[in-house]
Fold this sequence. Notes:
With 199 residues, this protein is α/β, with parallel strands linked by helices. The chain has helices spanning 33-41, 56-60, 77-87, 107-118, 143-151, 157-162, 183-190; strands at 5-11, 27-28, 31-32, 47-52, 66-67, 92-97, 122-126, 131-139, 166-170. The strands form 2 sheets. The chain has a 7-stranded mixed β-sheet with strand order 5-4-1-6-8-7-9, sandwiched between helices.
Amino acid sequence: MSLAVTGLVLAGGMGRRMNARDKGLVRFRGRPMVAHVIDRLRPQVAAVIINANRNTDAYAAFGYPVVADRFDGFAGPLAGLYTGLLVAETPWVVTVPCDTPFLPDDLVARLSAAVESTGAEIATVRTDAQTHPVFALVARHLAPALFAFLYAGGRKIDRWFGEQRAIEVDFPDESAFANINTPEDLAQHESLADPPDRP
């Protein structure tokens, strides 16, 4: 990894589909789900920040800075990203959701290579099945543009990305980006093998 990147774990949602439970703190295979995410992300980045709007003491116990949204009302992943862009000390921030315990070990390397080769300011994930915009590498200098979008009431991540120099990067394994949104997802993935790591 040649870019200096801060990893931002997005744990600021309301967990509506998880019966309002804080998804990052839901236990998965014996540990809070966010612990699995941090384990996979930490070796890929220079620093880790957790974006959380509740249970901040519980998240702080993992040993990383915890920051709340600067926009009130659980404004979605872009609000978390904006806060991360403000507090990060590296030129780039990569976002990952707190409910994706199988994220690839080469996520940051592949996104970094894509922005270095194209000059893009944002790189997001695409698999055969769909795009995954909450997995994104974003240049920190875009913070003012994101503030303007949020201040005007914008919330849709795809729309804001579409206004920037953004690219999508192909990843081969859809299952690596599986998120655990519901109690049913939790039960299903407890018994499944982890997706294989890709070189």
